[in-house]
Structure formats: C-alpha cells, structure tokens
Design brief:
single chain, 358 residues, mainly alpha, 15 helices, globular
Length: 358
C-alpha cells in the first residue's frame, strides 16, 4: 500500500481525534446523552434506544474510538445519575463502537485503508457506501436486538430523569455541535476525508483558543494510537514481503461466490480476534483487493466480529480503560462470552445482507 495513502490515514486519525476531543470538552456528548434522557420520559427502553442511536452516529461520523473513549464515560455517568445498571450500557458503547463502524470510510481505519483498493478498482466512496449500507444496517439492528434480548428482562422499566445540567460555554457547545453535524454530508458525499476535517479542527481550535485556552494541550493529539497503527503497518508490510502474502493466497478462497465470501468473513473474524483487526485487514487485503465484494466481506469480518478478545480492536482496550476509570468493573471473561454471542449474530446478519445485496 502506498506510503502516501497510509500517511493520509494516520493524519485523518490525528485530526478527527482532535475534533472529537474538543467536541467532548464543549459538552456535545454529555448534552446529547442528557437530552436523550429527558426526551425518553423516564422510560428505560426509550433511553436505551436513544443511546444506541447516539453511539451508532458517533461511530459512523467520528470513528469507533470516539465512541469507545469519549461517549463511554458520559453514558456511565448518566447511568449513575439515574440509577440504571451500568453493564448493559457499557457493552452498548463497546459493541456499537465496533459494529457501527462499517458504513463510512471515516468510521474505521480499516475502511480508510480499503479506499486505496476501491480506487484501484475504479470505484468511489459512494460505491463504498452503496456496498456497505445493507450490511451496516443489519449489523446495527442485530447488535440492538442481541443487547435487548440479553439484558432487557432484568432492566428496570422506568427511571427518574436527572436534573438538567448546563453547558460550561453555550457558544462552544453550539459551534462544536454544528461542526460535527456539518461533517456528515461531506463524508457521505465522498469528499476526501482530510478536506472537511482539517478546517473543522481549525475552527474548533481557534474557538477554544479564544474562549477556553486551557483545554488546548498536547494530550489532544492521539500519539499512542498513531504509533501503534504505524508500527502495525510496518510489521505487516515486512511479513507480507517475507512470504505471508503467498501463504494467504493459498488459504483464502477465490471468487465472489457465497462460499468464498463467507470464508473471507470468517478469516477476517478469526484473524482479528487472534491478532487485532488492523494487522488482520492489512494482511488479508493482499488477497481480497481484486474485487469490491471481497473487500467488503473482509471488512465485515474485521470490523464486526471483534467483540470477543480484548485486543481484537484498539477500541476495546480504550473502552475497558475508560470503564475502569469510571469505577465500572467488567471482567474480560464476561466481555468474551457475551461478545462471542453478539459477534456470531451480528456477523451472520451482516454477511446475509451482503450476500442478498450482491
């Protein structure tokens, strides 16, 4: 994969993280969560559905790490305020951070990496959206269904809404909300990802410099995730040059028949839970980049099935750390067995949607 494309992917990760962090500092996610609580009228299922929609939207537009890192503590704090059990809501953010990350190129680094292959095939970002829409919708709905069936019976029917909180700076809240919403049409229209996100970050940086300068700190830059991603790029490239590409070519099924696509999904799912979805995608894409359906099948496996092992996606690790900081203890054993159920259903639903939409 060209160095220029990888550099663009990493640059986008930095810029969109800055946008998300500043939006969080402005209170966008907190305001959205409390608005959902107020509009739910004290009905737990309505609130849960609203938070699922919020988690899906945050993942789709601002990437899975935004949901895992920034939305998780907001949702857990809301649970404490209204006395709802934290586990279902914590898993809601963890799962949807991954299972809602298929729709747009910006939703996941694997999606951004796949754009190079789509372009080589003469396809656009709109073609990407057309192919991923069905599997993405199926994955989100299946995630919601599994969560409700898994936890719905033990959930209180009603809760007492918390007192309304005011934003620290209404101007920054309004501006940050507008900036985030303004990104949506650019991402859907297939505009190169850095074109809208760089000005968006610039607008928010200037606004915070004028009104809340103390928020601007070097920690806004995601040094650790960028370093991990860059290191994985290098390791996989070395492995491919040393013969991994030839080995995978003999193992991964060819063609776009049902058996081949199911096999690619399964390979992506197993590899992601074994070694992390980013290197899994980078390695397996060497044998699936000859056809758009094969690429999307790989994304279904690498994006949606990563609910079983903690290292299957970086977002899982970031989410668990945020839960720990919020005082919510969730064992990896609980995460794994519940995630195995969720991953099986969600991946099956998305694969079926992909096959039906061919």
């Amino acid at each position: 994969m060209p160095v220029g494309h990888l550099a663009t992917v990493l640059a986008f990760l930095v810029v969109v993280t800055v946008v998300a962090e500043l939006a969080d500092a402005a209170g966008v996610f907190d305001a959205a969560a409390h608005l959902a609580a107020r509009l739910s009228g004290g009905r737990t299922l309505v609130l849960w559905a609203a938070l699922m929609a919020l988690a899906s939207a945050a993942t789709i537009v601002l990437s899975l790490d935004t949901t895992a890192v920034l939305l998780t503590p907001v949702v857990l704090a809301l649970c404490r305020q209204v006395d709802l059990p934290p586990l279902p809501f914590a898993l809601t953010t963890a799962w949807l951070a991954n299972t809602a990350s298929l729709l747009l190129p910006v939703s996941n680094l694997t999606n951004l990496l796949s754009l190079h292959s789509f372009q080589r095939l003469g396809l656009s970002q709109l073609d990407f959206l057309r192919l991923t829409a069905g599997p993405s919708l199926a994955a989100i709905l299946a995630t919601a269904l599994v969560l409700v069936l898994m936890f719905g019976r033990g959930m209180p029917r009603r809760f007492t809404p918390a007192a309304r909180t005011s934003a620290p700076d209404r101007v920054l809240l309004g501006l940050s909300t507008a900036v985030c919403l303004a990104l949506v049409p650019f991402f859907v229209a297939g505009v190169p990802v850095l074109y809208p996100t760089v000005p968006a970050a610039g607008i928010l940086l200037v606004a915070f410099a004028l009104r809340r300068r103390e928020v601007l700190r070097w920690q806004l830059i995601p040094v650790r995730p960028v370093a991990i991603a860059a290191g994985l790029f290098v390791l996989v490239e070395v492995a491919l040059r040393l013969g991994l590409a030839d080995l995978l070519a003999r193992v991964i099924p060819s063609g776009t028949g049902t058996g081949a696509l199911v096999g690619i999904v399964a390979a992506g799912a197993v590899a992601s839970n074994a070694v992390d979805n980013l290197p899994a995608y980078l390695a397996l894409s060497a044998t699936t980049s000859d056809h758009a359906l094969r690429l999307v099948a790989l994304l279904v496996g690498t994006n949606l099935a990563v609910l079983v092992t903690p290292w299957a996606s970086i977002a899982n690790l970031l989410w668990h750390e945020r839960c720990r900081r919020a005082g919510v203890s969730i064992s990896w054993r609980t995460f794994a067995w519940r995630g195995l159920v969720g991953a099986s259903v969600v991946t099956t639903a998305a694969t079926a949607a992909l096959l039906l939409g061919r």
